[in-house]
């Protein structure tokens, strides 16, 4: 009962405001439309398609887990690959869905995440991870992304060239391979 008068006044004010708003709805719509035009707003742009990679799913699992911790540092790559734009070599003859699309992250980050995921799925190592402070690795898989692009032409193809080096904790290269797929 102590708050009934202020509550009644608040409800009356809301009623008065909503009646005024209803009487002036055409003006309010015009003001909002003008603000939209002034700020460059439109009916809305279609959402940008976002693409990613999938990890390799058909690597054979190891029969025995190696008691080693494998660390996969950030891959090195040219600056042109360190963004989320989809690199295309050549001119596309027809518009494609990825023309205005983007990648979920920068190419090195996506490659690192998917290599880790793929190696985890094999269960070959005790652990596979990114570098973490205070974590000592038994092995490192050092990657260098040399080429990563879509080749334009009659049949779209991916051109990927990655150098991989397996490095021991004392800095010795235990194995090296260049993977090139087109």
Outline:
The protein has 182 residues and is an alpha/beta fold.
What do you see in this structure?
The structure is a single chain. By secondary structure, the protein is α/β, with parallel strands linked by helices. The chain contains 3 helices and 9 strands, in the order ααβββββαββββ. It has helices at 4-23, 25-38, 107-122; strands at residues 50-51, 66-71, 76-77, 88-89, 102-103, 125-129, 139-151, 157-168, 173-181. A hairpin with a 4-residue loop joins strand 8 (157-168) and strand 9. The chain is elongated, with a radius of gyration of 28 Å. The model has no long low-confidence stretch (mean pLDDT 82).
Topology:
Elements: H1 4-23, H2 25-38, E1 50-51, E2 66-71, E3 76-77, E4 88-89, E5 102-103, H3 107-122, E6 125-129, E7 139-151, E8 157-168, E9 173-181
Parallel strand pairs: 1-5, 2-6, 2-7, 3-7, 4-7
Antiparallel strand pairs: 7-8, 8-9
Q: What integer is the average pLDDT?
A: 82
Number of helices: 3
Task: Tell how many strands the DSSP assignment holds.
Answer: 9
Q: Separation of termini?
A: 79 Å
Structural class: alpha/beta
Tell me roughly what share of residues is in helical segments: 25-40%
Strand content: 25-35%
Series of secondary-structure elements, N-terminal to C-terminal? HHEEEEEHEEEE
Low-confidence stretches: none
Which shape, going by the Cα principal axes?
elongated
Rounded to an integer in angstroms, the radius of gyration calculated over CA atoms is 28 Å
Describe the biggest sheet?
Answer: 7 strands, mixed
Keywords for this structure?
182 residues; alpha/beta; elongated; 7-stranded mixed beta sheet
